[in-house]
Structure formats: C-alpha cells, structure tokens
UniProtKB/TrEMBL annotation:
Protein name, UniProt field: Heavy metal translocating P-type ATPase
Topology of the protein relative to the lipid bilayer: Multi-pass membrane protein
Residue numbers spanned by region Disordered: 622-662
Top-level division of the source organism's lineage: Bacteria
Presence of the UniProt keyword Iron in the record: no
Length: 662
C-alpha cells in the first residue's frame, strides 16, 4: 500500500481515469447505464478542456504541438455519442506520461547510477596523527562539501576517496578500474595524487585534501552526467516539426471522410487513431537509451544533440600527445648544456614539472624518481598553457632562488638566448630547460603510438569519416612520422590554441569531431561540432569543454561513440516514421468506416506501446558488454562504493596558478 501512494501522487490523472472507467462499467450493469455515458463523457470533456488550456499556452509561446489532435478527438467522440472511445484517448494521454517515465527511467539507468553513488561524507582528522598509525586518529564525519584544501582525511578500507587528495600514508592500493579500464589495482606512494572516487584497498589511509569537493574529479563527472541526463536532442525536436503537417493531414482526412460519408462519426473515428504518441515519446526515449548505452562503455555524452551530430560526422581532428599516443613518454636521453650535469638538469626539469598538467610532466618527474633524485623546493609556480611551466626554485646556482622554465624552445628562447635546438630522431620530442637566463639543456623523450589507434582510424573511415587530420602543438618532425604511420596525411604542427580553433573552424566536410585531452585542447574542443575529451587522466578543463568525455583511456571508444550515435538516430527516426505510417494507415481504414471509434482507440494504444518498446532498442543488445564504467559499476554493486576517477586532477598546491594563453 505504501508503494501505491507515490504512484497516486505522480499520476493522479491516470488513477482518476481508471476510477471513472470502473465506475462507468459498474453503472452499465445497472438500470442507470445512461448515467455511465454521461459521467464518462463529462470527464473526458473536462480533461479535453484541461489539455486545451495547456495547448493554448504552448501556442502563445510559439510551440505548435500534437495535443490539438487528441483534444479534437476527445471532443468529437463525445459529441457523436462515443464517450467510451473518448475515455480511451484520455487514458492514452494520461497513461502516456507514465509510459514515458518508465521508458526514460529504463533508458537512463546507467546514467543515474553514478549520481546515487557520489561521495557524500568524509572523515576529517582533528588532531595530528602519524601516517603509519591512522587507527589512532581522532576524526569527525563531515559532509564532503565541508572539506577544505589542506585538511587531513582518514579513508577507511573499501571507502571512496571523497576529494582529490595527496597520499600521506607511505603506500596504498586503489581500485580505479571503472574509469581507466585498468582491471588491476593501482599502487600509489606517499606524495602521489589520487582522485576522488577511487576505492581504497584493505588498509586505512591518511590523505591531505588537494581540492574542494566541487573541484574534484568525481564531482566533475557527476555534473557531466546531470547535464547529460537533462538534455534534449535536435532530432527529438524533429518530432515537433512534424506536428503541423501531421495535424493538417489528420484533420483533412477526417474532414473528407465526414463530407463524403455524411456521417459525423467518421470524423471522430479518424481522429481517435490520429494521436501519434510515438512522435511525442519514442524519439526522446531512443536518445536517452543511446546515452545510457554510451555510458555503459565509459562515454559520458552531455546531450542527445551530440548523438545526432555524431551520426552525421564526416571529419575528425586529433591532438597528438595523449590522444594518438599513449601520452606517457619514456626518457631517451638527457642533453645538459655547459655547466650542468645530467642529474642536475633532470632534477631542475622535474622540480618544475611537478606543477604542470601537461601529459609529459609525469614522465619527467617519474624519470627523476627512478634515479632517486631529490626534487628542489618550489616557492612559486605558474603554468603557461601551450608553452610550459615557470617555477621559482632554490638551486645550487647562487644563494637566491632562480626561475626555472621548462617547455617549448620557442618560448624559452625569449629568456635564454644561448638555447640550442636538440638533434632529434623521428618520433622523439625534447623539453627545453632554462635556469634564469641560462640555457640548462634538453630532456629528450619518446612517446608511443596507442596500439589501438590504427584500428580506430580504420573503423572511423568505415563509418563515414572522410577526412582525418592531426592538429598539435608539437613540432613537425615529431608529429609527421606518427601521422604517416596511422594514415593521416594532413598535419598541422606547432599550433597554439587559437591556431587550433581557426584550423578546426575551417575544416570541411562537417560535422567535425575534435579529439584531445589537455588544458590547451579546451578551446578547440568547445569550438568543434563534437568535442571528444580523452578524460581518463582527469583533464578537467578539456572534459568540461567537450561534448563527450571518454572515461576510459582508449581511442577505441571513438568509433564506438560514432556507431552508437548512428544507431540511436536510426532508431529514433524509425520510431517517428513508424508512428506516422501506422497512424495514417489506421486513419485511412477509419475513413472508409471499417474501424469503430472504440476499437480504433485501443489499437492506437497498442501502437504506442510497440513504438516505445522499439525505441528502447537504442539501449543496445543485451549481449553487448563493454568495460565497466562508473555507471555500470554503481548499478551492479549497489552496496559497495564504486571506483571512479583517474590519477590526475585540477587541484594545485597553495600558491600555484595556471595562466591560459589563447
């Protein structure tokens, strides 16, 4: 009984319609059978008046809808003595909302699962505690939104990391499989960064908050999902575009049938089968189903309109580092300038790169740690997007702190006139270092092409992508060998963010997909028809600018997204045309007098149900299983906290700023 009350509150008109129908059926078995017709007819006219008022409000806002057919059908059926047929149309109108809610909830199941599992609470440590004795910590449980940067947090075994944080404990193991696609546990050491939503292993940990909840990885994903769940696609609006011509056609057939036969009942018989619920419900359900299917594979689609654009995409542009390549280059060699040693140069570069969000930064820092180099104290750091990072370090070259710049040669040449360009082999890249106004040397690295990149590009061509190009900030000698190996003949190298936006805006044919993953990709992702962010590494700016966020670190997700978009639009259009064709067919049958009003109304209900079930095909086949996303993980393990994030995030230590140049 308790479960019925929410249904009553949610669908009062459905309940009222069923009660009126039951009352009428009871009265039919009594001498007051005429009263049944009056009650049913009066109720139908009240609902018609209610719907007409809403329809008029929509018309005043400039939105023409299909409700006029239902209102006209109800009124006509009552006036020609078919109140029961009118009641069936009323049931379709009121029950259609219930069917739509069910279908939408079914299709959004993957999307909403994550929202229910977002971190809500955190255990904040009140007194100082040794990192190796978390059990002794005195804590208070607080809402995750109350956590401030710098707070010490206790993360219990199996619990979610509530905010982006720095590991204080000596060693930890986290489950990050649901976002990165990596099935093995990930080990972290003291000082490493961990994103919110990661699931702790079997040992309690101490962590220091590096970002507030609103700026943390998991909450960023939640906002993306909320945006996706509330979207409405352009193709869905196509159903509204059919409203006026369909209404004119239906009224025309009904009017001709009445005029030719001379029977007003023909007018009502035609209109009761001219209420195209599939146009109103099935298309939105198909798009929500497609978005849910994408979420199953770690693809957060921000809007149904993105699926429509994907289905028509004809060009694709790619950033290089972290997109076509793995984005974790390995150290090839160190080329110190005169007066600097190998280890000293690498130490300078790594000390500054700690504060960079570029995908090369972690590789430089990792190479220094492999050599057991102690990093230098940083007083201040500033990241200059597309150029590099400038950090004030305490070095051995004088008593005062020195500004160390790490990045592109074109940028460093402004500060170190003695800079020498490194001699690079194909596929190698160099990071240049300057200490004050002295050129310190270059760190040479080599990135590896993603093993799935070639296959992904081949699939894109099979799916109708006619033009592919690379748009990168790297130099041509590094970018061109990789592009040639992948069959990309068009390369735009050494591009700044503004250059990328200009190039992408001029590319034909459209629509165009732009694929990137870094801070400097955010403007071009926003400018493209479809921005596709390789977000597994937590590049928040890129993720928020993009239309699709790929939570798994694989380029194979791109052709999958295009395929899902094509399938979804095909199913949505099938639903629209199914509703039109069947409704027109039933109208013609009714026009010749072969379909009584009551039977026609019930047939229309069946057609509506079939169309909605057909739209749910956009969810994909049951046998289709992809890597477990945070959404699928949350749905499958309702009693367990889901793993979610990546290993990088947007939070920065105090005093660290980032400057974007466009």
């Amino acid at each position: 009984m308790n479960r019925s009350f929410p249904l009553v509150r949610t669908y009062p008109l459905v309940l009222a319609t069923l009660l009126v129908a039951a009352m009428g059926l009871i009265l039919l078995a009594t001498p007051a059978s005429d009263a049944a017709r009056w009650i049913v007819g009066a109720y139908a006219l009240v609902i018609a008046a209610w719907e007409a008022a809403g329809m008029i409000r929509q018309l005043l806002r400039g939105h023409a809808g299909l409700d006029i057919l239902a209102v006209t059908a109800i009124t006509a059926a009552v006036l020609v003595g078919e109140p029961w047929a009118a009641l069936v149309v009323v049931l379709m109108l009121t029950g259609g909302a219930a069917l739509e809610d069910y279908a939408e909830n079914r299709s959004k199941r993957e999307l909403t699962a994550l929202l229910r599992k977002a971190p809500q609470r955190a255990n904040r440590i009140l007194d100082g505690v040794a990192a190796d004795r978390p059990a002794e910590a005195l804590t208070e449980e607080v809402p995750v939104d109350d956590v401030e940067v710098g707070d010490l947090l206790l993360v219990r075994p199996g619990a979610l990391v509530p905010v982006n944080a720095i590991l204080v404990s000596e060693h930890a193991v986290f489950d990050e499989s649901s976002l990165t696609g990596e099935s093995l546990p990930v080990e972290r050491a003291a000082g490493e960064r961990v994103s919110s939503g990661a699931v702790n292993g079997r040992v309690a940990l101490v962590m220091r908050a590096a970002a507030r909840a609103a700026d943390s990885e998991y909450q960023q994903i939640v906002r993306l999902v909320e945006q996706a769940a509330g979207s409405r696609a352009k193709v869905v609006r196509l159903a509204d575009r059919y409203a006026v011509p369909f209404t004119v056609l239906a009224l025309g057939i009904a009017g001709i049938a009445w005029a030719v036969s001379g029977e007003a009942v023909r007018f009502a018989e035609v209109l009761v089968v001219a209420t195209p619920c599939p146009l109103l419900i099935a298309a939105p359900v198909a798009f929500l189903g497609g978005m849910s299917r994408a979420a199953r594979f770690g693809l957060i689609v921000k809007g149904g309109g993105t699926l429509e654009q994907l289905s028509r995409a004809r060009s694709a542009a790619f950033d290089k580092t972290g997109t076509l390549t793995i984005g974790k280059p390995i150290l090839e060699r160190v080329l110190p300038a005169h007066g600097f040693g190998d280890d000293e140069l690498l130490r300078l570069a790594a000390s500054a790169e700690v504060y960079s969000s570029h995908v090369l930064a972690d590789s430089v820092v990792g190479a220094a740690r492999q050599r057991n180099l102690a990093l230098l104290e940083v007083e201040h750091a500033e990241e200059i997007a597309t150029n590099g990072v400038a950090a004030t370090l305490n070095t051995s070259h004088g008593p005062d702190a020195v500004i160390v710049r790490v990045g592109k040669s074109s940028w460093l040449r402004e500060y170190a006139s003695d800079l020498t360009i490194a001699d690079l082999a194909p596929g190698e890249l160099a990071i240049y270092v300057a200490a004050g106004h002295r050129f310190a040397g270059a760190v040479v690295m080599r990135d590896r092409v993603r093993p799935e990149a070639g296959r992904a590009l081949q699939e894109l061509r099979q799916l109708g992508i006619e033009r592919t190009l690379m748009v990168t900030g790297d130099i041509a000698t590094t970018a061109e060998p990789i592009a040639r190996g992948l069959g990309i003949s068009e390369v735009h190298a050494e591009c700044r963010p503004g250059d990328k936006v200009r190039i992408v805006s001029e590319v034909q044919p459209r629509p165009l997909i732009m694929v990137g993953d870094g801070l400097n990709d955010a403007p071009v992702l926003a400018a493209a028809d479809i921005g596709f962010a390789m977000g597994a590494r937590g590049a928040t700016a890129a993720s928020e600018s993009a239309d699709i966020v790929n939570r798994f670190d694989t380029l194979a997700s791109l052709p999958r997204a295009v395929r899902i978009g094509q399938d979804t639009v095909r199913i949505a259009l099938q639903s629209i045309w199914l509703g039109i064709i069947i409704s027109v067919g039933l109208m013609l049958i009714a026009a010749f007098g072969f379909l009584p009003a009551l039977l026609g109304a019930w047939l229309q209900e069946v057609v509506d149900l079939v169309a909605i079930l057909g739209a749910l095909r956009a969810l994909g086949p049951r046998s289709e299983r992809g890597p477990r996303s945070p959404l699928a993980e949350a749905a499958a393990h309702k009693d367990e906290p889901p793993a979610a994030p990546s290993s990088e995030f947007s939070g920065r230590p105090d005093g660290i700023t980032r400057t974007s140049e466009k």
